[in-house]
């Protein structure tokens, strides 16, 4: 049922940019990346110790995501540079941004009395499997889906973020993911150009399996982080389904179809996502709007207040 053939839907061809455009944008972002600093001058008045511990768990998960992105991007940069130097430099600069996030999260965790902790069973399993991926297209597809649920989680968490330092940290992560997600779509397009046709079926199976697993991961994260982000399971999993679905419905040339059954479990469908006027988070327009960090307006999901 999960692998049912996709039904045709009407979709506009996505706007695309060459690698040289992405490289120029990444270089521009790198020039001022380290100018920004967290304001950690005031202690956070947590409502309870449970809320603080949940915040530590939440930002530990964010740290692991950034660390993984850094490691994989720099490893791929070395490999990809052999056949596309510009794309290789894009990967390296992207990894540098992930590394900067890791530095900020390390400082933030220390500020809230936390530290980088060993990964839990579910998170550890995800990243061990991710680390075993060897082909460029498999690594990029997996990272793209991780980036998408990260962006979705941060934007949802902004709805309930009451403390200035927390809002600043979430805003930085959300803002930069607005650029990273469409950037990773470009990485995937370039990787697929060199991918043999025999890999397509395997990649579709990976996409569908990971789609289901990431929706399930929302339940595991609720045990650790709910007291902090206050996102109910169904809201989080439903947002994952929507944005992981829209990810490829709007980027139709990539030829991945979100599992209709899972979409319908959370009130969505391929056709509805394709016909929505809501701009795709993976679009080039989203990336263009997010190039200059100081000019980005970050909004929470669900009609919450601006950040």
What does this structure look like?
By secondary structure, this protein is an all-alpha fold. It has a single domain, classed as Ferritin, CATH 1.20.1260.10. The protein has 11 helices and no strands. The termini are far apart. Mean pLDDT is 85; it is low at 1-10 and 303-307. GO terms for molecular function: oxidoreductase activity. It comes from Sorangium cellulosum (Polyangium cellulosum). InterPro entries: Ferritin-like_SF, RNR-like. This is Rubrerythrin family protein.
Brief digest:
This protein is an all-alpha fold. It is built from eleven helices and no strands.
Keywords, please?
single chain, 0% strand, mainly alpha, Ferritin-like_SF, 307 residues, disordered C terminus, Ferritin, RNR-like
Radius of gyration: 19 Å
Low-confidence blocks of residues: 1-10, 303-307
Structural class: mainly alpha
Q: How many angstroms separate the termini?
A: 40 Å
Shape: globular
Elements, N to C (H/E): HHHHHHHHHHH
Report the sheet-strand fraction.
Answer: under 5%
Provide the CATH architecture. Up-down Bundle
Question: Mind summarizing the main beta sheet?
Answer: none
Organism: Sorangium cellulosum
Protein name: Rubrerythrin family protein
GO molecular function, one term: oxidoreductase activity
Any chance you could write out the topology, listing elements then pairs?
Blueprint: H1 19-31, H2 49-80, H3 85-111, H4 121-132, H5 136-157, H6 164-193, H7 199-229, H8 233-249, H9 260-265, H10 270-275, H11 284-290
Helix pairs in contact: 1-3, 2-3, 2-5, 2-7, 3-6, 5-6, 5-7, 5-8, 6-11, 7-8
GO molecular function: oxidoreductase activity
InterPro entries: Ferritin-like_SF, RNR-like
Organism: Sorangium cellulosum
């Amino acid at each position: 049922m999960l692998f049912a053939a996709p039904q045709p839907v009407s979709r506009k061809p996505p706007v695309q940019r060459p690698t040289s455009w992405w490289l120029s944008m990444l270089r521009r972002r790198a020039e001022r990346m380290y100018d920004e600093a967290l304001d950690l001058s005031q202690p956070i008045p947590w409502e309870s110790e449970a809320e603080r511990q949940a915040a530590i768990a939440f930002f530990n998960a964010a740290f692991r995501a950034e660390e993984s992105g850094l490691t994989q991007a720099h490893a791929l940069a070395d490999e990809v540079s052999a056949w596309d130097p510009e794309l290789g430099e894009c990967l390296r600069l992207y990894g540098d941004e992930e590394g900067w996030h890791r530095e900020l999260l390390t400082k933030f965790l220390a500020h809230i009395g936390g530290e980088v902790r060993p990964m839990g069973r579910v998170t550890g399993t995800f990243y061990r499997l991710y680390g075993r991926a060897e082909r460029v297209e498999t690594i990029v597809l997996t990272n793209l889906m991780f980036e998408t649920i990260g962006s979705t989680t941060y934007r949802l968490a902004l709805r309930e973020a009451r403390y200035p330092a927390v809002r600043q940290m979430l805003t930085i992560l959300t803002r930069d993911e607005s650029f990273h997600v469409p950037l990773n779509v470009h990485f995937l397009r370039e990787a697929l150009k060199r991918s043999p046709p025999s890999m397509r079926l395997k990649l579709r199976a990976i996409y569908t399996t990971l789609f289901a697993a990431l929706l399930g991961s929302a339940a595991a994260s609720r045990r650790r982080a709910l007291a902090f982000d206050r996102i109910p399971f169904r809201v989080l999993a439903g947002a994952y389904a929507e944005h992981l679905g829209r990810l490829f419905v709007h980027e139709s040339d990539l030829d991945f179809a979100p599992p209709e059954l899972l979409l319908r479990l959370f009130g969505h469908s391929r056709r509805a996502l394709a016909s929505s006027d809501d701009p795709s988070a993976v679009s080039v327009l989203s990336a263009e709007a997010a190039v200059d960090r100081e000019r980005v307006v970050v909004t929470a999901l669900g009609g919450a207040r601006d950040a």
